[in-house]
Amino acid sequence: MSHLHAVVWIDHEQARITHFSDDAAEQLVLHSTHRPGKIHHKNGPSGGSGHEPEDAVYLHAVADALRGAAEILVVGPGNEKNELMKHLQHHDTAVAGCVVAVQTVDHPTDGQVLALARKYFRAADRMLKTI
């Protein structure tokens, strides 16, 4: 993919990655094979916090899919976008360095995510031109 920008909408079950330019877009959807459940036991599955660990294979696949974009916007409804950022900072600093913003959004359509990202990058590009 030879697009300058990328946006990823991510939650615990899927990531919708779109590489795009002003007039074209390519999308990839990745699914987690790990389905974290709600654990109500005080000590959890391994004596830990009561939460299942993040799906590292899933986060690695998302990082690989984002590779090649010069600027990345990360969006999503819950905590997985922050888990992705932690993962990138520890395992893929090159991709982490391309992330320009992390925003909370609920469950928009693919078209709404792309419109949000295009609007974000147009505003950011205008701001850079004025500096």
Task: Describe what this molecule looks like in 3D.
By secondary structure, the protein is an alpha/beta fold. The chain has one domain (5-130): eRF1 domain 2 (Nucleotidyltransferase, domain 5), CATH 3.30.420.60. The chain has helices at residues 56-66, 80-91, 93-96, 110-130, and strands spanning 5-10, 14-20, 25-31, 71-76, 99-104. Strands 3-2-1-4-5 form a 5-stranded mixed β-sheet, with helices on both faces. α1 packs across α2 (80-91). The longest helix is centred in the last third of the chain and has 21 residues, at 110-130. The radius of gyration is 16 Å and the shape is globular. The two termini are 29 Å apart. Residues 38-42 have low confidence and may be disordered.
Task: List strands and helices in order, with pairings.
Blueprint: E1 5-10, E2 14-20, E3 25-31, H1 56-66, E4 71-76, H2 80-91, H3 93-96, E5 99-104, H4 110-130
Parallel strand pairs: 1-4, 4-5
Antiparallel strand pairs: 1-2, 2-3
